[in-house]
Each structure stands twice: as structure tokens, then as C-alpha cells.
Amino acid sequence: MRVVITGGAGFLGSRLARRILERGQLTDASGTQRKVRNLVLIDVVPASVTDPRVDIVTGDLADPALIERALTPETDSVFHLAAVVSGQAEAEFDTGMHVNLDATRALLERCRKLARPPKFVFTSSLAVFGGVLSDPVRDDSPITPQTSYGAQKAMGELMVYDMTRKGFIDGRSLRLPTVTVRPGKPNRAASSFASSIIREPLSGVDAVCPVAPTTAAWITSPRSVIANLITGHEVAAAEFARAGFAHTRSVNVPGLRVGIGQMIEALRSVAGEAIAARVKWQLDPVIDRIVATWPANFAPVLGPALGMRADHDFEAIIRQYIEDERPVAEPR
Amino acid sequence: MRVVITGGAGFLGSRLARRILERGQLTDASGTQRKVRNLVLIDVVPASVTDPRVDIVTGDLADPALIERALTPETDSVFHLAAVVSGQAEAEFDTGMHVNLDATRALLERCRKLARPPKFVFTSSLAVFGGVLSDPVRDDSPITPQTSYGAQKAMGELMVYDMTRKGFIDGRSLRLPTVTVRPGKPNRAASSFASSIIREPLSGVDAVCPVAPTTAAWITSPRSVIANLITGHEVAAAEFARAGFAHTRSVNVPGLRVGIGQMIEALRSVAGEAIAARVKWQLDPVIDRIVATWPANFAPVLGPALGMRADHDFEAIIRQYIEDERPVAEPR
User: Fold this and answer.
1) What is the pLDDT of residues B243-260, one digit of tens each?
2) Considering only CB atoms, which residues of chain B are within 8 Å of chain A?
3) pLDDT tens for each residue of B157-192
4) How far apart are CA A9 and CA A7, in angstroms?
5) Which residues of chain B does A159 touch, with a Cβ-Cβ cutoff of 8 Å?
6) How many angstroms away from the CA of B248 is the closest CA of chain A?
7) CA–CA gap between residue A264 and residue A214 (Å, rounded)
8) Is the ipTM beyond the 0.85 threshold?
9) Cα dihedral sign for B96, B102, B107, B108?
10) Contact A247 B132 (CB under 8 A)
11) CA nearest B142 in A: which residue?
12) Is residue B95 within a helix (H) or strand (E), and if so which, with residue range?
């Protein structure tokens, strides 16, 4: 079985790659469990996963030649994670359209030409929601995104569903909650603060929180989101119809609703007052406006029916981060 | 004022052109009523409207050179009507994507480069709806199209709204009901029968109805749809927010719910039994499946709040067709 991950050098992409290599097998579109013999990681920078099964491909994802080289005709599955994040897509409209729309379309077009219609897991986002929404947001809540990132992801979902309906692919669009705690440096996602306010204090560095403590977010841990990406791939296409959702392939991935103030409380409880005090509140109107358009409370039905699971509490997510990413944690 | 109509040689485009020429003026994005000095009609075939104010442009709408020539920097308004219709977009996926998505995007991209952000009226369709829907369909009902045409129109709406939000254009997406009675020949719209079953019998020709008499449709007369297109252009941007719809520029245009059997009853009542008997029922599963995914019952709130109006009854629509398109009507 040949599996491709776009954004394969990124935070989620590299973890997904490692998880797939550990599992060693996946279920193809015909429902057969098969060994993963080839895992192709595409990104703008080379992925650092080393394994004899891994091929590294570097370049612009909207380049048809690169896509053709990476998605050989015998490709069975594509996880399409590469994206320009929300803050950058809002500031650089053309860059967002190029990567989030054009590259997604180019990949889907290539998938039509493969030997068999592949499974196609597209990472969409809760940012497809916005405007006037029910509380909680339901699986069929209206898609009226209020950011360019959300609009581009929503267009991707429409293509994934339509091409699935046409039999070109077996697609699944997973609307991910905000993933936290991410290691490394802040990125240009408007949600980047949701990791910084935990990660930086734990490293003994001050962090700025650009949104109000009363703002809430719909979040997932890295472990849960990787598990849900695998589930989103593994589940049989027929399960969508069985759950009463034959008319869509878009899934609100289960998450945890948490107030930003509560996140700092959890940090205090896990790591102590001195660390929690490193968070400085300083409202950034641009970030706050983007984040405020995203709903924080969902009542997912389809995701759980497909076997997806949410985290239980934010304290556990912080402990998970310390365990996975910071072998030498700060003393309490 | 310079106004561009794509699909300007088509049924709606040429009628819209005549209506704009009659009015002589439109309201620009700044809210100023201005004389229409230039009306540009773009289509694959030359438009037949003759008026000193009219420029005819012929070619492929996805061609940037053609768009640049037609949308000069001083363009104030664009009515984007050109589209590959539903039946053809379903049969020829690439053609549909090329015209319905690529050409729409190319036009929008050009609009960003004009001297001032223009008004942009995009003709979307009730085909953006499908799947599991409330009855009646509300303005905020979920967008889960079950045809490629609907998916492409939904992507166009997302771009129109996002570019409006960014200040690139002042966009309005009007989801048109099925327009009937159209003169001329059948086209490849799955809804083409909704005109044929009235038009052909009135010309003394048999017509085949490919859907069941119990199937219902959400329809509009040509006169009403032209009036609503003008209203959709004229209304001030602030009216969307005033009506409680600041988060969208997509409007479910008011229509009339009518059963296909009722349409034939109306034909009988207006034109007599001999003419109504010319309709032969012969189910076409492909057409029937496409039409069945479209809802027929709506409860529009935004459209009426913006001043849009529906037809009152189907008999009046048939009489309107006879008056407008068949100066010498068949005797009863």
C-alpha cells in the first residue's frame, strides 16, 4: 500500500507519519487491510522521519509535476494536511488561495488519474463555521465562514464531496478543532496563542495571550487528533450513510470546549503559580476578531458515530504535552 | 456607468440587458444613481441586443485577456450569469469546473484590479441545496449540494462573500429558482423540461416530461427573475446587515412552489385540453434523480427583506409567456 501525506514535515504530518509507520498497515478503499510499503511525505521543507518505507518529496504542492511524481498511479491513500494557516491566509489572500484551494484541487485532479480511486483525507477546520450559528454547532450547521482560510477550506470540502459522489475518490473532510499544545515556535495561525500560552511558560518564557480570558475555544490534543485522522481514514465509506449522513463527507471532529482563562487555570494546577504567571494578557484586535468568528461549542453526532473521540480535560492535555514533547519538565 | 453582463447573449442575459437599457440608470457601489453609458455583453456567441450603448464581446470567459479587455478599470458593475447548466456540468465535470468555477474566479480576480470595487451580482442556484434539508428550506439551511453544478455554484458563493468581506467587491449571490417558461429550444439544464412541457404544447408540439407529476419545483417567471436581479444589484450593501444577514451575501430568491402535475393543470386551464394532452409522461431516471435533489419549498426571509418578489400563480406565468414570447397564441 502506498500512502501520501502532504504537509508531511509539519507538526501533524510528521506525527501522523510516525503513527502510520508504527501501525504498519491501513485499510484501503476496497476495505482490505494492507501493509504500508511506501509512505510519501511531501512538504516545502524535507520531512525528518527516517524509515526505509519513507520517501521524502520537497516542493510546491500546486506544481502538477511534483504531484505527478509523488502520487504514482498505484497510490492508495492521500492525507492532505498541507495548508496556509488562518492568520497568513487572511493577510495574504493570494497565498491562501494558491495553497488552500489550488493545491487541493491539483491533488484531487491527480487522484482522478490513479489506477483506483484512492482514499482522500482532507484536513478541514472549524473555521468553515462563522456568522450566526446555533449553540452548540450541529453537524449540519450553516457554512458561512468569516475568514479566507475558512472559505478556502469550505471550497475544498465541496470538491472532496463532489468528487467522492462522482466516484473519483473516497473522500473524507475532517474539520479539526484547534490543536494544542503544539511544540516549537508560534506560527501564523490565529490560534497559535492556544499553544504558546502553555508551551512558553513551561519553558520559562513569558507568553502573550492576544484574546480575552472569557473567549472559549474548541480544542483537541495532538494525540487525539492523530487518532481521529486515522479513524477518519480507516472507517468504511458505508458508515457515513449508516450514521444518516449519506449526503456529506464532512465531519466535525470531536473536541473539548475550554475557556482561555480555564486553560491558564489548568496550567496553574499542573505546573504551579510561577509558571502560570508568565502569561500576560494583551488583546490583539486582529487575532481576537478572527478567533471570535470561530464557534467553541459543538454537538458532533457523525464524528462519534464513526468512532472519533475527544479529550477529557485540559489538564490531561498539558500533562500529555509534557510527556510527549518535554522529557525534562520544569519542576512544580 | 459601465456595466458588464456575462452570458449576455443568453435568455436571461439578453432580457436583463434590455431591462437595464430601458431603465437607463443603476445605482453604483457608492449608492449614487448613474446613467448607464456602457453595457458590455460577453458570451460565447455574439449578443443580438442593438443599442449605441452596447459593446459585444465574444469568447471564452475563463480567458484572462478577454476579461481584461471587457472589464476595463472603470467598470462599475458585473452581472455574472454565464454558466454551464446542471445537466451538462454533471455529464462533463471538467467543462463545469472550467466555466462555473474558473471563469467565476477569473472575473472576481479581475474585479480586484478595477479602479473601485464594483458591484458583482452572481447568479447562483437552488442547486446549492441538497441532501437532508428542513422543509421549508430556510435562508441558513445547510449547503450540501448533490450535483457538480450545485457544488460549483456554492464555491462561487464562498468566493463572492469572502472577496466582499475583504473589500475587493460588493458582491451579491442570488440563488435563482428554476426559470420557466423559457422560449427557444431545450438546453442541458436538468430543469429544461419545466419550460418544454409548457412551450412545446403551446406550439402544437408534443413534449416529454421526464419527472413524476408529484415532483414539485421552486420556480420563477422570467419577468420576476429579471426584476429580482435588478433589485439584487440596486439594494444597498447595508441592507444585508439591517435584515440580520451581515454574515452572508447569498440570497434565496423568492419563488413559487408548484407540482409538475399542477403545471399541466394550469396549462389545461389557460390553453385547453388538446394542448395539455400533448405532454407525455416518460420518466428519465438521470433527470429525475438530479431534480429530486433540489428542494421545492422555501421560506425566504432575506430576499423579501431586500425587496425581492415571487410570482403569484403558474397560470399567470403561462399567460406572461404567451404575451412576451408568442405574440400569436394558439386559440383555446
Assistant:
1) 999 999 999 999 999 999
2) 93, 130-132, 140-146, 148, 151, 154-155, 158-159, 161-162, 165-166, 244, 246-248
3) 999 999 999 999 999 999 999 999 999 888 888 899
4) 6
5) 151, 155
6) 7
7) 11
8) yes
9) positive
10) yes
11) A142
12) helix B93-96
Q: Which residues of B touch A142 (CB under 8 A)?
A: 140-143
pLDDT recorded at residue B112: 97
Query: Which DSSP symbol is given to B105?
Result: H
Virtual torsion, Cα B231, B232, B234, B240, nearest 10 deg: 120
Three cell numbers written together for A236: 468504511
CB-CB under 8 Å, B132 with A151: no
Measured distance CA(A127)–CA(A149) in Å, rounded: 7
Beta bridge partners of A178: A219
Residue A331: is its pLDDT beyond 80?
A: no
Q: What is the Cα–Cα distance from B8 to B47, expressed in whole angstroms? A: 6
Residue B57 near residue B71 (C-beta atoms within 8 A):
no
Hey, how many other C-beta atoms are within 10 angstroms of the C-beta on B226? 19
Opening angle at CA B40, ends B36 and B46, nearest 5: 140
Distance from the B143 Cα atom to the nearest Cα atom in chain A, whole angstroms: 7
CA A65 to chain centre: 26
pLDDT at A313: 96
The identity of residue B175, as a single letter, is: R
Checking B97-103 for CB contacts under 8 A at 24+ apart, the result is B97/B148, B97/B152, B98/B62, B99/B61, B99/B62, B100/B149, B100/B152, B100/B153, B100/B156, B101/B152, B101/B155, B101/B156, B102/B62, B103/B6, B103/B60, B103/B61, B103/B62
Length of chain A as a residue count: 332
Per DSSP, B46 falls in state: -
Most A-contacting residue of B100, B162, B245 (CB-CB within 10 A), to test interface: B162
Of A145, A98, A93, give the one whose Cα is nearest residue A250.
A145
* Predicted confidence (pLDDT) per residue in A86-142, tens digit: 889 999 999 999 999 999 999 999 999 999 999 999 999 999 999 888 999 999 999
- Enumerate the residues of chain A whose CB falls inside 8 A of the CB of residue B89: none
One-letter amino acid at B7 equals G
* HSE toward the beta carbon, residue B210, CA cutoff 13 A: 18
Q: Are B254 and B304 in contact (CB under 8 A)?
A: yes
Beta strands in B101-215 (DSSP E): 119-125, 170-176, 178-179, 207-209
Instruction: Give the pLDDT score at B144.
Output: 94
Q: Which of B158, B166, B248 sits opposite A155 (nearest CB)?
A: B158
Residue B292's pLDDT is 81
Q: Whole-prediction pTM value? A: 0.95
Chain B environment of A146 (Cβ under 8 Å): 165, 247
Look-up of cell digits 430543469: B191
> pLDDT tens-digit profile of B23-73?
999 999 999 999 999 999 999 999 998 899 999 999 999 899 999 999 999
Q: Where are the beta strands (DSSP E) in chain B?
A: 2-6, 25-27, 33-35, 38-43, 54-58, 75-80, 119-125, 170-176, 178-179, 207-209, 216-220, 250-252, 256-259, 279-281
B149 has catalytic annotation: yes
Closest CA to A278 of A263, A288, A264: A264
CB B122 within 8 A of CB B173: yes
| Residue A16 near residue A229, CB atoms below 8 Å | yes
